[in-house]
Specification:
Layout: E1 3-8, H1 11-20, E2 25-28, E3 31-35, H2 40-57, E4 62-66, E5 70-73, E6 78-80, E7 84-88, E8 100-101, E9 106-111, H3 116-120, H4 122-126, E10 135-140, E11 145-151, E12 157-163, E13 169-171, E14 176-178, H5 180-183
Parallel strand pairs: 5-8, 9-10
Antiparallel strand pairs: 1-3, 2-3, 2-6, 4-7, 5-6, 7-9, 10-11, 11-12, 13-14
């Protein structure tokens, strides 16, 4: 999704406007960033991830949301829309609107050419400040690639990356596994999988 910067406003004004808007916008320390539509490939990958997680989380106290669940970061310095966000247990919201999530455990972003620098930069750097976040995954469209960050007990983050022969990705925070063949289903150049790691 392409981002377009708009003039600075307060977080209260952002939320008032955003709750009335038809298009989604993110909030970055007073600056509003409108989000343009995603490509078919981007949407297919998000749908595939969501479908896989829905099946694996069935009957558990975990929920996953795609595209439209706003997440508050650093007490409202940032309001972001991850491509996929997962919670487990009671969900905490900023207010009674139940549209600003405070306690995600897993966030996944599907990288696009127009937003990759943003997803790897300011957006990624803001996510580790969410106390409940345990894992962050970036999924590339072309070439197929998973990049995985896992929070350690001491608060540091461990990075791992796979491309081409992508093994099943174990999401320990939610007890699920992502298979490359499922993530890239109905797309060209589906990578083969190596044994689970």
């Amino acid at each position: 999704m392409a981002a377009i910067a708009l003039p600075s406003i307060s977080r209260e004004e952002y939320l008032r406007r955003e709750r009335l808007a038809q298009e989604r916008s993110e909030y970055h320390k007073g600056h509003v960033v409108t989000m343009a539509g995603a490509s078919r490939k981007h949407n297919r990958i998000v749908s595939n991830i969501t479908g896989s997680l829905v099946a694996q989380l069935k009957g558990r106290r975990c929920n996953n949301y795609a595209n439209d669940m706003r997440v508050a970061v650093r007490g409202g310095e940032f309001y972001l829309y991850p491509d996929v966000v997962v919670t487990c247990g009671p969900e905490l919201y900023e207010d009674d609107e139940d549209d600003i999530l405070l306690n995600p455990i897993l966030i996944l972003e599907v990288l696009s050419e127009s937003t990759e620098a943003y997803d790897r930069g300011e957006k990624f750097l803001s996510y580790p400040s969410i106390p409940t976040l345990r894992e962050y995954v970036m999924v590339s469209q072309t070439p197929p690639r998973f990049e995985f960050y896992h929070k350690q007990e001491d608060g540091s983050w461990v990075y791992r990356s796979w491309s081409e022969a992508i093994p099943p990705l174990s999401l320990q925070s939610i007890g699920c596994t992502l298979l490359a063949v499922e993530v890239y289903d109905k797309l060209e150049d589906v990578p083969r999988s190596d044994p689970a790691i």
